[in-house]
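Hi R.,

As promised on Friday, here is the backbone we talked about, encoded as structure tokens. Could you run it through your design pipeline when you get a chance and send me back a sequence?
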């Protein structure tokens, strides 16, 4: 089972954590005032970054 240190070494986990915190900030504080077009660009960016991180992944968390 991966340890906390191994999770912190994962760029994908860090990116997901950042997205979670941004979603929490938006949901509770409403910090982002985006129109639908800006939201679609943000979602496309998230998808692209997720795909790039997946291709960069070379080892499982248990080996980090």
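Update: got your reply. Pasting your designed sequence below so it's all in one thread:
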């Amino acid at each position: 089972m991966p340890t906390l240190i191994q999770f912190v070494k994962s760029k994908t986990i860090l990116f997901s954590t950042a997205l979670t915190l941004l979603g929490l900030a938006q949901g509770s504080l409403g910090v982002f005032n985006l129109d639908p077009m800006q939201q679609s660009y943000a979602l496309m960016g998230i998808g692209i970054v997720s795909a790039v991180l997946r291709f960069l992944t070379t080892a499982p968390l248990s080996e980090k």
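One thing I noticed while checking it: Helices lie at 4-8, 11-29, 36-56.

Thanks again,
M.
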